[in-house]
Amino acid sequence: MSLRDLLASDAPLVHLRLSAVAGSAPREVGAEMLVAAHAQAGTIGGGQVEYRAMARAREMLDIGTTQDSLTMALGPEIGQCCGGRVTVALCVLTPDARTAMLARVDGAHAPGVMILGAGHVGRALAQVLAPLPCRVVLVDSRAEELAQARSGEHRLTPLPEAEIDQAPPGAAFVVTTHDHGLDFLLTLAALKRGDAAYVGLIGSATKRARFTRFARDHDLDASALTCPIGAAGLGDKRPEVIALMTAQEIFAAFAHNPQGTP
Question: Which residues contact 8 (CB under 8 A, 6 or more apart)?
């Protein structure tokens, strides 16, 4: 379950945040997660630290405690070998804090990924990105394809290029439609923005060469394009593999683009 899904539920929640880290630890200060009685989202590093912090959070929900703090050494006594020390701040979310956190998760500081085309690869990519810190928008003109998608915001429109124009600065665009001509038009629109963190086009080396000529005819340099997407899958054309490799490409691009980072 994603942070957003848990925040949008009606379950009482405890917010866990690493407030201090000394030495080696699995996560950095600010890493956060949410814990409900029977669900959780996010991570503060896994292992015994997370297990014990989650147990404390659920105890807080049971007995009505609203705030707590837990400090642990990452050593043999808890079965971890990092050697550092972490402090976890725990707080039951008030309605106002919940609303504010939901706004933050949904807000402009979350990098946006627009997937243009809700076919097999587009849906798989939305699913892979669902638990990651980004806002996923799935765009298609086909209601039946969007209806099969289980993740992301869905936008049914006959004018997907308008969605590209309205996307926030630093967004990532992944073009995976059912039509090569439409692929080219949408990829061109994404590249023309000039501020995209990532522009990816499903296809092959041949398709890239054709698009490069198409872009040149429109006075546009296509060197920033990633095509084919998910090439690190080394020829594995299963949608799930392409999606996983493409997600890695997108987050590598976000890491190098100040506008695309949260």
Answer: 102
Contacts 24+ apart (CB under 8 A), 244-251: 244/128, 246/125, 246/128, 246/174, 246/200, 247/125, 247/128, 247/129, 247/132, 249/198, 249/200, 250/113, 250/129, 250/134, 250/172, 250/174, 250/197, 250/198, 250/200, 251/132
Residue-by-residue DSSP string for 60-76: HHHHT--EEEEEEE-SG
The pTM assigned to this predicted structure is 0.67
pLDDT in tens, 31-82: 899 999 999 998 998 888 899 999 999 999 999 999 999 998 876 555 555 5
99-103-108 Cα angle (round to 5): 175
Distance, CA of 92 to CA of 76 (rounded, Å): 30
Instruction: Give which of 45, 47, 56, 57 is closest to 18, Cα–Cα.
Output: 45
The C-alpha atoms of residue 150 and residue 135 are separated, in whole angstroms, by 14
Q: Which amino acid is at 6?
A: L
CA distance 54 to 41: 11
CB of 24 within 8 A of CB of 84? yes
Q: What is the DSSP letter of 229?
A: T
Per-residue pLDDT at 235: 81
The Cα–Cα gap between 69 and 24 comes to: 20
